[in-house]
Amino acid sequence: xxxxxxxxxxxxxxxxxxxxxxxxxxxxxxxxxxxxxxxxxxxxxxxxxxxxxxxxxxxxxxxxxxxxxxxxxxxxxxxxxxxxxxxxxxxxxxxxxxxxxxxxxxxxxxxxxxxxxxxxxxxxxxxxxxxxxxxxxx
Length: 138
Known about the structure:
Blueprint: H1 2-32, E1 34-42, E2 48-50, E3 56-59, E4 64-68, E5 74-81, E6 84-89, E7 101-108, E8 112-118, E9 124-130, H2 131-136
Antiparallel strand pairs: 1-2, 1-3, 1-9, 3-4, 4-5, 5-6, 6-7, 7-8, 8-9
């Protein structure tokens, strides 16, 4: 009898863990969809380079996206697994801004939401959007 209870509790625990990860993944996908501006690059020592937020990134519901540059757009695919976002590019450029995988960090500021994409080396790409853009995008 105790083996059945232990097995039952183990199954329930596994279900809750998987549901929690899936729910968090869906929540991050929902938060990221929409239009963002590329505003800063930060190296692992914390030194920030401001990019003036001119280039736009659009994350779409179908897990594709586009970076809108002044001369040519770059298309990509994205997915979130275990609080990490990974990218694959659709265009054939040598200089591609998003590499393989980043940790996601959302920060809510007074006037905007900041999304920091942190790579394995500790370097970051910082995206921002206004709070009104976040509630109206999708």
